[in-house]
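[Meeting: bench + compute handoff]

Bench side (C.D.) handed over the final construct sequence. Compute side (W.E.) agreed to return the predicted structure before the next meeting so the bench team could plan truncations. Sequence as handed over:
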Amino acid sequence: MPSRPPTVSRRRVLAGAAALAMVGATSMTAVACGTAPPPPDLDDLTTGLDRARADSSLASEAAAATRGSAADALTEAAAERSAHAEALAEEIVRLTGQAAPTTSVTTTTTTSTASPSAAAPVPTVDDVIGALRASADSAAAAAAALSGYRAGLFASIAAACTTASSVALTPAGGAR
C-alpha cells in the first residue's frame, strides 16, 4: 500500500524561504566585503597630489634662497600649491574613504664629509617655473580625461600653475 504524501504547511514553506534568504544574504555580504579595486580617477589624483607637494617644497626652498619680489612670488606659489595639495587630498579621502597618502616621494639622508660645494644645489626661480609648467601640462591632461568636479579641480590647478609660471614668476618686461 502506498504511503500518504507528506503534508507541507504554509508555516514550513515560509520558514524555509526565510532560511534561504538568510543564507543568500550572508553569502552576498561576504562577496561584497571583499577588497574593491581602486577607483580609476585615483591615479590622476595621487599624481596631482605628489606634484603639488613637490612644487610647494621646491618653491619654498627657492624662496628661502631668494630676496625681494621674487621671494614673495615664490612664497605665494608655494602657498597655492599647498592649497592644491590639500584640495586633492580631500578629494582622495572623499573618493576612497581613506586618508590620502602622506607622500610617495622617498627621501634618504646620508652623512658625508664632502665639502659644502657638493651639497644639492638650491633651486632657482627657473627650476620652479619649469616644475609649474610641467604640473600645468599634467593637470590640463587630467582635466581633459576626467569629468565633473574632478575635471574642474584639475582645470583650476592647470590655470593656477600656468598663471604662476607665466605671470607671477616672470620678471616685468621679459619672458622666460
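W.E. noted at the follow-up: DSSP finds five helices and no strands in the chain. C.D. will use this when planning the next construct.
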